[in-house]
Amino acid sequence: MTIQYDAEVGLRFSHVPAEYFQLLQQIPLHGDTSGFAPGERRLHQSPIGDPSNDEDDEINEDWREHVLPEMIEEFARQLDVVSDDLKTAERFEDRGGDDEYGFVIPADHIERWYGALNQARLVMQERYRFPELETDEEIQELLSSDRFGPFLISRFYTEIQGFLLKVMMGGMTNDE
After folding, report:
1. Phi, psi for residue 91 in degrees, rounded to 5
2. pLDDT tens across 99-157, in order?
3. pLDDT tens digits, one per residue of 76-99
4. Can you give the three-state secondary structure of the chain, one letter per residue?
5. For residues 97 and 95, what is the distance between their CA atoms, to the nearest angstrom?
């Protein structure tokens, strides 16, 4: 897989193996909190998690009324942008006859892609409860569990976010 940056165009992905492309197509699925209360709570956290007085309650209520609806709409737009951008992908065959894909994340979509990937990772963390991996036992337990595949997907999303962050911070130059 090759990723190149062009300030006028955005991030150009080429030679994306079909398996990786399928993982990218799953970003909206992984970021969807529909019917999954822990994911909703993670993405829609009130500014004051443990209100201790009427003022705290009022702040949280104002947040729920004025901020949360716009935030939910933006989260949905982020997932829609990812879906729409991936629909523009072109499929190719490599020399071995395997499918590969190419697509562009337009420059003005990069922040929304970053947000969608973040949503997907956070919801996956809530769904699969990945361990911190601080001990050999935690690593062994993850490796032998059904959570290992989703963990690798989450790590893949993290790496893509790294490219996006580098672009957003101005650290990636044309054709890098």
Report:
1. -100, 140
2. 999 999 999 999 999 999 999 999 999 999 988 888 888 888 888 889 999 999 999 99
3. 999 999 999 999 999 998 878 889
4. CEEEEECCCEEEEEEEEHHHHHHHHCHHHHHCCCCCHHHHHHHCCCCCCCCCCHHHHHHHHHHHHHHHHHHHHHHHHHHHHHHHHHHCCEEEECCCCCEEEEEEEEHHHHHHHHHHHHHHHHHHHHHHCCCCCCCHHHHHHHHCCCCHHHHHHHHHHHHHHHHHHHHHCCCCCCCC
5. 5
Kindly list the distances between the CA atom of residue 168 and the CA atoms of 107, 114, 152, in Å, as whole numbers in the listed order: 9, 9, 24
Q: How far apart are CA 38 and CA 118, in angstroms?
A: 15
Tokens standing for residue 15: 């030679």
Cβ–Cβ < 8 Å for 100, 16: yes
Query: pTM for this one?
Result: 0.88
